[in-house]
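Reopening this one. Same input as before:
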Amino acid sequence: MKPVIEMQKQPKTSDEAGFTLLETAISMVLLAVVGLGIASIFFFAAKNTVSASDRELAMAVAQQQMEQLRSAPFTDSSLSATATDGTSATVTRAGRRYVVLTTIANSNTINGTARTKTITVKVTPWSDGTQWSRNVSSVFGSVTLVAERSSLILGPNRQF
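Same output, byte for byte:
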């Protein structure tokens, strides 16, 4: 003869622990809102890191262009005075395009010969995206360097 094991059913009580379906749904919505907030902060930080990198490379391009102009002889054709709009060139560095605007103005002219020149180099990251993104990068990512360059000729008021 086999012993019979009886399973007793426990009666349901109203104080059972656990979450209801409504509580679970609300917690999922809250987690989604928090997760989206964290994701937007991540993308904001990534975008600003790229923007800082653009400014850093724009500064390097501007310094390189300025050093080339400062190392050229004063009478070199590359230091000829430009129109007020300057001359524009596109340069690619590290896979990114930059627009280099160079303006050279004769600052001091004596007897028809320039004695000093003001050199302005403005470098702007070029975005292939929309016009709006180009305007934003030109405001926040552009770099402008200004230098004065003088000739080695003494002025008429100096005698040695």
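So the earlier flakiness isn't reproducible anymore. For the record, DSSP finds two helices and four strands in the chain.
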